[in-house]
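Protocol step 4 of 5: obtain the predicted structure for the target chain.
Materials: sequence only (see below). No template structures provided, no constraints applied. The aim of this step is simply to have a reference model before the mutagenesis design in step 5. Sequence pasted as it appears in the construct record:
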Amino acid sequence: MRRNFPQIGLLIFAATLLAGCIDSDNGGVTGEGSIRALHAIPEIGNVAFLIEEVQLAALGYKDVSGTSSYDDLEYDFNFEILLPGDTEETLLATTVLNVSRDFEYTFVLAGTFEAPEVIIWEQFGRDWADELEDADDAGTEVTVMEVSFAHVDRELGEVDVYLESPGTSPAATTPRGSLAYGERTDVFELTADEYQLVFTSPGDPSSILFASDPINIPAATTNLLVIMADGGLTSADFTVRWIGTSLGLELLDINVAPQFSAIHAAFGSADVDVVLDNEFTTPEIQGLAFGGISKDLAIDDGSLDINVTPAGNPGVLLAQREVTVAPGAFIRTYIVGLPGEVQLVTIADDRRVLATNARVQIFQAAARYQTLDIYLVEDDVDIALIDPTFPTVLFGTGNSYLPFEAGSYNLVLAEPGTKTIVGGPFAVTLEIGRNYGIVAVDEDDITAANVLIYDQTPESSDPPP
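Step 4 output (structure tokens):
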């Protein structure tokens, strides 16, 4: 299908590591343009978006900044990143743009960590406030909205994009456009209504790659729907960022299943079966031993009933929990507690991998300790001289993944508020691009605690030997 983008200027600038500012001459200013930024590199963490030396936004992956207005002059626009172990930001990508009056610009940080680029999408800004005022004076209503589509998933090929009434088959209509990486379609003026976004393989409306839930797009709004790699934040391969009135609402594929996994961290308990939604005759996870971690299992979103029994003995219930599962979510249940006091703790998880550092997730499953101070420090660091890396971690709780530099570390468990060591030091080696789970557990010595260490990188979820 021929692509035709007459209404939108697409500017792609190769990212460069040359810094520098353009001195702005205030003469000749005739008005303002508006700018915003989108972080679209899944393999890096938070970045800063700047105009000249002024930071406009801090952005995590898939985050969209608010809109800022600037005079129609020439500016440097920069993306910076604070790398692990550094105290100052590193310039990741930069470009120069002469802002035009009444235009709207979206700066997209795209590409990879090794080869970043800035993609700029521009369009003339529609003055909805004036239209609403004119309609009010005339006793009428504004019933239309604007929408366009864009594509910044490097792993996804060309797609055909459809936006129609919910349930409309792509075969029964014409795509709004075809998109390859970096491209954006025309702006379409449509009646404000309920729609469903669908994209398919090019030229094949039967090959549906993505279908959203119905979305209501309000009148008098300008909307941009951006196809992005999910990056391991959900179980989907790709998602869609709705930029405009929603300021970054995420649309998920209705056909993507959430994923469930379990870790047996209940010291003293024998092997267990994990039963989902009362299917006791065929437990989804069978014979999970202490220290074991299951593979991801596809489940339905909504209410999930989790039961744990002794392996092969569905007549004895050790623990039960009901949770609500979001579409596309990764969830993990920790089986914790001493014998006779087993309980289940379920947390949201992810499978993101970063090119800049290792990631570490802590969970406190040592039931004999209501809280623990946990230290993860370099080999030559004395914990007596520093604060805990993870202070006062309550039993049955943990943290989201945190970034760490690659290297050799000591892991130490201590009684809270003291330097009294109850576990460790345990040697831990962290590698860039790997995810690690560290679980504090009980052991035979009732005055001590131990740890389970897992490589939780997506292709390797088994404990290391």
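Step 4 remarks: Residues 128-251 form a domain with the Immunoglobulin-like fold (CATH 2.60.40). The chain has four domains: 9-124, 128-251, 257-349, 354-465.
Proceed to step 5.
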